[in-house]
Amino acid sequence: MNKFFLLFLVIIFFISNASASNTKLIRGSAYEDQIKWKFVKFNLPKGKWIYYAKSAWSVYHFRGSCAYLISTNKKTIKGHFEICHVDSGGKLRAQFGALLQGELKNNKYGICSYRSEFFYSKFLFKGASTNCFVTRYINLKKELFNPDDPSAVTARLKKYIKDNDLIIPKNSIQAESFYFSNRRDRAYSVSTIINPEFYGAPKSINSSGNESEYNQANIDKYPIKKKFMMRWTKKMTNEHKYLEKQMETNNDFALNFSDMPLIENNNQNSDLVEQIKKLDQLYKSGVLTKDEFEKAKKKLLN
């Protein structure tokens, strides 16, 4: 064989293997921007993310694994990222899809059906294939220590929080994706939780739970928080579409996000800045006390 042709083949081999390789996740190490896991790329929210735990299981032909990453800031949880993968070893693809779909449709705690607490949701079933996406407010402390779903597995995160003496945020928001196409023997679930205060949202005022500004029952009262939730939801729908693209999803099985509410481009932010400036002038001139100024500013921001 011509040595130049042989050299070309060797180069192509190493390039193709390099592009296909997963990110080497090492427990305790930090990762930023993007990781590749189970041959799918996932974009991490801004910041450093510590890979702190993994899990794996196997039953009959079915195999599953999960990777868990966390981001913190001054001992406060900034975000949590969880990705899971399940397959049937290529032997029971149709049965596997039907089993997954049945579980998802009948799970009252799942993401593949309409629930009033969701901020935004989309789900699609086609044959044995399932494609779902949601965003919502999440009471992280309750989910860890008193979850609605008794089957929720949170032991790894609770241990990490305890071992590192972390503060659980007052309010968190979550995006979840689930994808399985009968064309492929791979199911993926992705959960992204962030503390909105670390990603540009105003500081939370109310306690978590039923009083939270991000709770679907309350969010219309807080237009700035709602606008943040809308922008973040839009960003996360793009991440879901990125997953679909990597899975080579047909157009008729891709989720249609065209009903996403439009984010108004008005002068609301400019007006808000002007109102805060006026309050500041009133405070500096002595018309408002410091306490009155802070209360008025909080009212404007929410």
Quick rundown:
This protein is of the alpha+beta class.
- Side-by-side strand order of the widest sheet: 1-4-5-6-10-9-8-7
Largest sheet: 8 strands, antiparallel
- The number of domains is 2
Rg? 23 Å
Q: Mean of the pLDDT scores?
A: 84
Number of strands: 10
- Net shape: globular
Q: How large is the count of helical segments?
A: 7
**Unreliable residue runs:** 3-19
The helix/strand class is: alpha+beta
Q: Report the helical percentage.
A: 25-40%
Straight-line distance between termini: 72 Å
Listing every helix as H and every strand as E from the N terminus to the C terminus, the arrangement reads HEEEEEEHEEHHEEHHH
> How much strand?
25-35%
